[in-house]
Fold CHAT domain-containing protein.
Amino acid sequence: MARLRSTTIRGVTAGNNSVLQLLPMVFAAPGEALARAEELLGADPSPLHASIAHQVIGIWQRDFGDTRRALAHLRRARDLAARAESAEREADVLATLGVALVHCGRTREGLAAFERGVARGTGHTRARVLYRRAYVWWVLGRHGEALEDVRRAIQVLRQADDVIWTARALTLRATVHLALGAVERADADFTAAEALWDTTGQEHDKADAVESRGLAAFRSGDVPAALRLLDEAEERYGKLGTPTFMLTIRRCEVLMAAGLAPEALTEADGAIAALDGIGGQSTRKAELLLVAARAARLAGDPQTALARAAVAVRLFAGQRRTWYETHARLVLIEARVATGRESGRLVADAAAVAERLAAFGAPAAPEASLLAGRIALGLGWTADAERHLAVAARSRHGGPPLARMTGWAAQALRARAAGSARGVLEACRRGLDVLDDHRMTLGASELRARATAQGAELAAMAQRASLVSGGPRRLLVWSERWRATVLSTPPTRPPADPALLSGMTAFREIAARAEAARTDGGRPVPALEREQRRLEREIRSRTLHMRGEAPGDGDRFDVGRLLRRLGDDVRLVELAVLDGRVHVLLCGQGRVRRFEAGLLAEAEREAEHVQAGLRRLAHPGAEARLPLVEAAGARLQELLLGPAAEHLGSGPVVVVPPGRLHRVPWALLPALRERVLSVSPSASSWLRARETTPPPGGRQVLVRGPGLASGGAEVPELADRYGSASRTPDAEEGAEEARVPSPRDGRGGPTASAGPGGGRPPADGRHAVPTPSAADGAPGPRTAGHRLPRDHRAVPSLSSTGQGREPVRPSLGARRREEATVLEGDAARVPRVLRELDGAALAHIAAHGTFRADSPLFSSLRMADGPLIVHDFERLDRSPYRIILSCCDTARFASVGADELLGLVTALLPLGTAGVVACSAPVNDAAVVPLMLALHKGLDAGLSLAEALRDARAALPDDAVHQATGWAFSAFGAA
């Protein structure tokens, strides 16, 4: 019998290599391996060959299909190996079966199969069995046993010169090191495994290696690299046609760290549904439920977090996966606390979870200690709180950025419990510095903005401590410390990536076709919209891969510098929100004063009522609502300014609201209605805008996009006003004798009818499709892309509003002016528009504005070839010094992170734009025209944007439509 077994083994290793090659093929070409195995079974193979075929099908079903089918095939493979009397074959199949049983939640049976496999196998085969048992130990969270088994396996596999299995074992050992927080050891093993994979054709294993490198990048704090590597792994898996459930788990972890918890929840829930649909692994389902629970908690949905975490705890317990069960219990406790269920029992539960996690060596242990301390503090158990917080605070000195943040948060809570305001502020400063460094490694402005959510608690604690002990100046400093930080430095320029550029071009084309289809037929085209969403995901994915280029600008906010710039006339009003109440910090005349106003929640509700009123007033016939809107403005003033409204002086006012109040039409407030008024996301942003130097030459660009009801009628009149008798066509566009349409030649739009006593077109908020006519401002074939020589006048210097001279502000009547560029019709295409906008002194853009609440960086202006999106603006070397956006929704933002805003205006401010005029509500298209003409008249006289907008509002007719239009526009910045 021994001689027969020996002969069989030699036959397998020598004469049956083609059959044996099916096993490595499962992870090189899974689909082909499955087809060949099924073909082999149809040829009445020997028990030995049939065992291999069933094992191949079992592996495929286990990892990519139905686990019940996997078990059936693997049991058949085991029985056939026994019939063939091949102990080595039986040992190998038992190891595969053990993995499948554990993934099905039958942990005891799986470990028993491994015991038999280790006993049956010898030498090289036993090493492969040990590797797979090490993998199971990792799945079960038993990392010590995993490291021991994989160490024993690697020694033998290297001696046998088994490249594939050695690379697998090194990758597994690196993954276990990552689970224990040993990032450097993991990097060494990943590097060694990658060198081995490069010598093989194991495409699925290679994709897994890229995925693992993404996990390593994430654990080391490099979120952009993690996203890039995980996306690359997804592409590799996609080519193989294999599911990616483990990849989804890892990607969701990275998304949560990047502040994208809602997206992580959506992906996790989608993967759970897909896994259930194929009867996939129970272990993976439990892990996905845990990820979904964490994502729901971070997304502010504690009830969903409770539901997902409870199921995950039950599944992990049944699978005997104590390491994972403990992590799920941590999320369960966090969700209960979020629903207001603080109790002594939860303190004990959190402390027990912290002890178990520490025993496992899990990086999440400080998080659990922090949670126990926080609950204890809420109950007034100061001694217990100090004990738990002291443990959590140890993590502040090392590890990834978010772990150190946990430590500094614990230290700040300890100081607060001890009554040390100084200690609170120091811990908050150190913690936010850590997060600053992490934030600046992110190149995408979206990730920078969302990452600030991690520092919201520290910023709030510091503000409370400042309010109690530091006075208004210190409160102002801490209000600025974590407000609109995304504007502190320019975003990283998108790479010259051909795939990204072609993707953006394709996106514009598809978006334009989808818009045309909706316009022509009134119905969306699902195929176009699906392709548009796919391209959006691709563009966004590639931009999220960008790394930050600078460690930070080091420019800390200086109250003295602000007060010097404000001087005696200008007042800056910064609104800070503490515990739901608005505090007004009034800066000016060399001091900062604090006033207490109303509740933020009430102000938000009132602001929504005002927005609804403005939408109604954009349509003629709603005049009766004007007193209601004005009354709402008075209530908003009381809630937002309170007694500070009586101390604004008579000069200009700068309002710095929190992100949640970005839609307030500030010019509607009675105390601000007649003032020179500007809005800024932060005082630091206003200072930078104030000190921004205008570009030389005073170049100006006028753009009008398609589809406006008035045809953007102010543009031809402005072009006519700024030009002279002779006009030169733009040679680049090949025009012959370009001529700007004006109201006088019958092609200038309804400018005359927009004033007092004239008829008005429908109030469609610059969103309606124009009715083709001679009066709709539609350009003729030769009116596009021309330049107009301007007159030459001296520059009037604006007087300083503070101590020292202000930068000279360019105006339409200022300095020797270069040619004005007019882009309309086919010339108003995104590449040309961006080229002309880059470095311009003034840009006026009349185009449809679309705000995307679901994806704010895809908010857009409609050009001839499709949408001009925020990602396009970020490619500019320098955005125009002044920009006027005469269309609705351009001043709308998404409030994200701690106190950040994402949208068109906030994308422009870090890129060199010092002033923007934009609109936060739908407006009457005809009423916009006289407002814009009056605004430019003020600029021509040398006024700032805020001054010119104030005068333009005053020059409008006093009917409801024009008044509402004036209130809807705001001046941002300081130009």
Summary: Residues 1-15, 724-817 have pLDDT under 50 and may be disordered.
